[in-house]
Write a structure and sequence with these properties.
Layout lengths: L8 H7 L4 E6 L8 H10 L5 E4 L11 H10 L4 E6 L5 H13 L4 E5 L20 H13 L15 E6 L6 H16 L4 E6 L3 H13 L6 E6 L4 H10 L7 H9 L3 H16 L5 E5 L7 H6 L4
Parallel strand pairs: 1-2, 1-8, 2-3, 3-4, 4-5, 5-6, 6-7, 7-8
Helix pairs in contact: 4-5, 9-10
């Protein structure tokens, strides 16, 4: 694993079939970044890169571009998440160029959640572009042009990621995920991070179907640490595309040691799917100090 940020180690590892470990840090609601700095010290040398979320769950937070820059300055490689929800095409392109200038090359393109689930439900969603269209915009920027065909002074270069959900609830939605995944690859996606995986059978089914479609691209499987019964129920009610099974919620509910139980559940999932994915992406949701313990449980 990486000991410090040196160029684009994450891209090198993914492209060279190294099993990678990423996690996520959410910017604070405010300007106090001490907790971010503390988590950086915990995660350095433990994970290969860290996603910086972009107003996650449609909740207003400090900007991900600023936190991504701080992570890179502190020696931890960021993956700058950028959603289409809050910006029009001018702002999206401007932020992408700014990221490149700041040395941030890893990006994860998302359409974004609707604003009505967040803490500012009156906010007007933008959605000028969707994730596939924005990936095409990034491709154009890398060719030296903006979306309107105007020339750029200097071309940015990115390592481009996108999201896929392997836990679709029906055969139709399952196939739609694969079709959209294929479109994202055609638009320039170079790796995928999945929504949290709980159903390993579904994950194997998804991977098998992707292989048959000759979708040969690194897939980093999402792993969510469920902290409480309340959190599990909240995710199921408010987070689109994620379903925490009743069995998982039940185990957490009765557990005397919720941290160990959650880590045991995550470890079991990881060790089952590890041979079939290119890495894992850990959503710790404030339990970042427990990520080292989880990683130690992963079989070599």
């Amino acid at each position: 694993m990486c000991n410090s940020f040196n160029g684009n180690d994450f891209e090198f590892k993914v492209k060279n079939n190294k099993f990678v470990i990423t996690c996520e840090l959410g910017p604070p609601k405010g300007v106090d970044i001490e907790n971010i700095k503390e988590n950086v010290e915990i995660l350095k040398g433990i994970v290969d890169a860290v996603n910086v979320s972009d107003n996650q769950g449609s909740n207003m937070k400090l900007g991900g571009l600023a936190i991504s820059h701080i992570l890179s300055e502190m020696g931890l490689e960021p993956i700058f998440q950028i959603t289409c929800r809050d910006r029009n095409r001018l702002a999206l392109q401007s932020d992408l160029l700014s990221a490149h200038v700041l040395g941030i090359k890893n990006i994860l393109i998302l359409t974004g959640d609707y604003t009505n689930i967040g803490d500012n439900p009156q906010a007007k969603p933008v959605f000028d572009l969707d994730s596939v269209q924005l990936l095409n915009v990034v491709k154009k920027l890398e060719e030296g042009y903006d979306i309107a065909g105007n020339s750029l002074k200097g071309k940015p270069v990115f390592f481009k990621g996108a999201v896929v959900n392997t836990e679709a609830e029906s055969d139709i939605s399952f196939e739609l995920q694969l079709i959209k995944m294929h479109k994202k690859i055609e638009a320039g996606a170079q790796f995928f991070q999945t929504m949290p995986v709980f159903d390993t059978v579904n994950f194997f089914r998804f991977k098998e179907r992707a292989d048959k479609m000759k979708i040969n691209i690194p897939i980093i499987a999402g792993i969510l640490l469920v902290k409480s019964e309340k959190m599990g129920n909240y995710v199921n009610k408010y987070i689109p595309g994620v379903r925490v099974p009743d069995g998982v919620i039940g185990k957490i509910k009765i557990a005397s040691d919720k941290v160990s139980t959650s880590i045991d559940i995550a470890t079991s999932i990881i060790n089952k799917i590890k041979p079939f994915c290119s890495g894992i992406h850990i959503g710790a949701q404030g339990w970042e100090e427990h990520i080292p313990k989880l990683i130690k449980n992963i079989k070599n």
